[in-house]
């Protein structure tokens, strides 16, 4: 596990965009896992700016979204399919045929979950996943008490998560009550994970995920078991970490040695 603490949210976005660009250059057919919400926006925008400046080849990149609301048509303005299209597919110039989002409008939702797991497997698994973290410690829509071995499934959303996401809808009551989400077990199968967090409202969740016990009450804590996980945080998101001075010293030492992420 590696923890990087950067001064500002924009620095978080720039750092992770550089990492994604390097991985795409190394493997043009890379399979990316993409999160939605506000946390990764700076990364997507920095990556889009970089693609405009450089010849970053993305024609063969595959993307799998973490989750989708149940009951929303794909082109609903609040759907994650719409988010992925407007914030990732179009700005990066990705091939729409290579973009995969769970089908929250499916007639048979259980089968849609199985189909999504199979699609990930058929593409050889996800190479690099970007995650955000909810104020209650959720990743994807794996709410507290989620099974640590869970796979893609239907989940009820907590009241806090629905309140946090109400800003994307016309009214709080318009936020769906359920979603399809990749499970914690699905996420842990990813080859490499980068979790981004910015702001003091994420500080408690970040501290629980990085330094707390591994427990269902903080789903993100399962990431402590992942062999290639990097937490990329701004100063505010890192403010509750008891070992932040240690993480900074490791960061400085690696930088002086010219080494990349562990």
Describe the protein:
This protein has 262 residues and is α/β, with parallel strands linked by helices. It has one domain (2-257): Rossmann fold (3-Layer(aba) Sandwich). The protein is 35% helix and 16% strand. The chain has eight helices and ten strands. It has helices at residues 9-26, 41-53, 80-92, 109-122, 159-165, 184-188, 203-211, 244-257; strands at 2-6, 31-34, 62-65, 67-69, 99-100, 128-131, 153-156, 178-181, 192-197, 229-234. The strands form two sheets. It has a seven-stranded parallel beta sheet, sandwiched between helices. The chain is globular and about 55 Å long. The mean pLDDT is 94.
Main attributes?
262 residues; alpha/beta; Rossmann fold; seven-stranded parallel β-sheet; three-stranded antiparallel β-sheet; 8 helices; 10 strands
């Amino acid at each position: 596990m590696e923890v990087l603490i950067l001064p500002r949210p924009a620095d978080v976005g720039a750092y992770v965009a550089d990492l994604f660009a390097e991985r795409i250059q190394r493997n043009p057919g890379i399979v990316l896992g993409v999160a939605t919400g506000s946390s990764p926006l700076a990364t997507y925008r920095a990556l889009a700016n970089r693609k405009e400046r450089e010849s970053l080849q993305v024609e063969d990149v595959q993307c799998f979204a973490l989750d989708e609301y149940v009951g929303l048509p794909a082109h609903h303005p609040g759907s994650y399919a719409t988010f992925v299209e407007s914030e990732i597919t179009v700005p990066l110039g990705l091939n729409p045929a290579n973009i995969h989002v769970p089908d929250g409008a499916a007639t048979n939702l259980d089968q849609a979950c199985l189909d999504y797991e199979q699609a990930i497997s058929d593409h050889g698994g996800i190479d690099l996943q970007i995650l955000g973290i909810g104020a209650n410690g959720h990743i994807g829509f794996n709410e507290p008490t989620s099974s640590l071995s869970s796979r893609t499934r239907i989940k009820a959303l907590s009241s806090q998560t629905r309140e946090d996401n109400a800003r994307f809808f016309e009214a709080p009551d318009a936020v769906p009550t359920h979603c399809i989400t990749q499970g914690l077990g699905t996420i842990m199968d990813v080859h490499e994970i980068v979790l981004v967090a910015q702001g003091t409202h994420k500080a408690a969740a970040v501290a629980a995920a990085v330094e707390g016990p591994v427990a269902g009450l903080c789903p993100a804590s399962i990431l402590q078991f992942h062999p290639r996980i990097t937490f990329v945080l701004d100063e505010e998101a890192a403010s509750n970490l008891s070992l932040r001075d240690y993480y900074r010293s490791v960061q400085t030492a690696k930088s002086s040695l010219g080494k990349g992420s562990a």
